[in-house]
C-alpha cells in the first residue's frame, strides 16, 4: 500500500508534494471542485491539507493534486 501511495507523489497526481525526501500520499477532489485535499506521510510525519469554500461554492477548478499537494 505504501509503494502505491509513493507512486502518487513521485509520478501521479501528487507530484507537487515531492520535496526530495521519502513520502507517500493521496489526493482527492469532490464533485464540482467544492473540496480538494491531500493526505501524506513520511517516515517521521503525517499531514492532511483541505482547501475549499466555507459556503460550499465551487472553487476555480482547484484539485487535490494542485493547491493542496503544494501546500
Structure write-up:
- This protein has 71 residues and is α+β, with helices and mostly antiparallel strands.
- Helices cover 24% and strands 28% of the residues.
- It has two helices and three strands, in the order H-E-E-E-H.
- It has a three-stranded antiparallel β-sheet.
- A hairpin with a 5-residue loop joins strand 1 (24-29) and strand 2.
- It is elongated, with a radius of gyration of 12 Å.
- The model has no long low-confidence stretch (mean pLDDT 95).
SS element count, helices: 2
Strand order of the largest sheet: 1-2-3
- How much strand content do the residues show? 25-35%
Reported for the largest beta sheet, the result is: 3 strands, antiparallel
Distance from N terminus to C terminus (CA atoms, Å) equals: 23 Å
Overall number of strands = 3
Low-confidence spans: none
Helical content band: 10-25%
**Could you tell me the radius of gyration in angstroms?**
12 Å
The run of helices and strands is HEEEH
Rounded average pLDDT: 95
What's the shape?
elongated
Structural class, judged by helices and strands?
Answer: alpha+beta
Amino acid at each position: 500500500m505504501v509503494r502505491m501511495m509513493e507512486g502518487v507523489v513521485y509520478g501521479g497526481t501528487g507530484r507537487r508534494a515531492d520535496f526530495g525526501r521519502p513520502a507517500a500520499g493521496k489526493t482527492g477532489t469532490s464533485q464540482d471542485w467544492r473540496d480538494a485535499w491531500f493526505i501524506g506521510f513520511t517516515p517521521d510525519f503525517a499531514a492532511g491539507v483541505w482547501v475549499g469554500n466555507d459556503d460550499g461554492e465551487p472553487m476555480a477548478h482547484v484539485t487535490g493534486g494542485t493547491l493542496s499537494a503544494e501546500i
